[in-house]
Amino acid sequence: MRFRECAGVLLGLTALLMTTNCGKHTPTAPPPSVDMIEIVSVQPQSSLPPDSLFAFRVSIRYTLATQDSGVLMVGFNNGTSVHSFRMVSAVDRIIGRGSGWHVFQVSAMTKYWGAEGSFAAYVNLSPYPHGSSWHPLATDTQDLTVGPPV
Question: Can you give the pTM of this predicted structure?
């Protein structure tokens, strides 16, 4: 009877060691080495009337890998050109090295571009601090649906 109890304990310990990789070190993924920003969602994103002020929620994920600090920025192409975005500096978010999520809550006017293109949300990850002229480290856009004027 004593042998059976010891054998059961031994089998249990063997199974435990097998499920924990026998104590061996499992290498982890190296830290990211590329800056990245991605729009995960924009709300609302469709059935938007033109020339109307909306409160948008722009959810993003990001990685800042090449610098110690950066700034997350959001804007919309509601100016004079479909290819130009007006940034809403009041909601800029300063971040440190690493990865994370952020939700911008921002108001912006919609614009119907017709055949020229789509109204869009734009985000960028930029160096911080930066001068009056700089290049973003990473960018992303998401088209939103604005109906034609009535």
Answer: 0.78
CATH of the domain at 44: 2.60.40
Residue type, 129: P
Tokens (6 digits) for 41? 């969602």
Q: Is residue 74 part of a domain?
A: yes
State which residues form the domain around 117: 36-144
Query: Tokens 């104590």, residue?
Result: 23
CA 145 to chain centre: 21
Separation CA 106–CA 75 (nearest Å)? 9
Helix (H) / strand (E) element for 9: namely helix 2-19
Is 125 in contact with 70 (CB distance < 8 Å)? yes
Using one digit for the tens of pLDDT, what is the confidence trace for 109-133?
Answer: 999 999 999 999 999 999 999 999 9
Q: What is the mean pLDDT of each run of 10 residues along the chain (150 residues)?
A: 45 40 52 90 96 97 98 98 97 98 98 97 97 96 93
Provide the token pair at 73: 């920025």
* Residue 38, amino acid: E
Biggest alpha carbon–alpha carbon distance for the chain: 88
Number of domains in the chain: 1
Q: Are strands 53-76 and 86-87 parallel, antiparallel or unpaired?
A: antiparallel
Q: Are 136 and 74 in contact (CB under 8 A)?
A: no
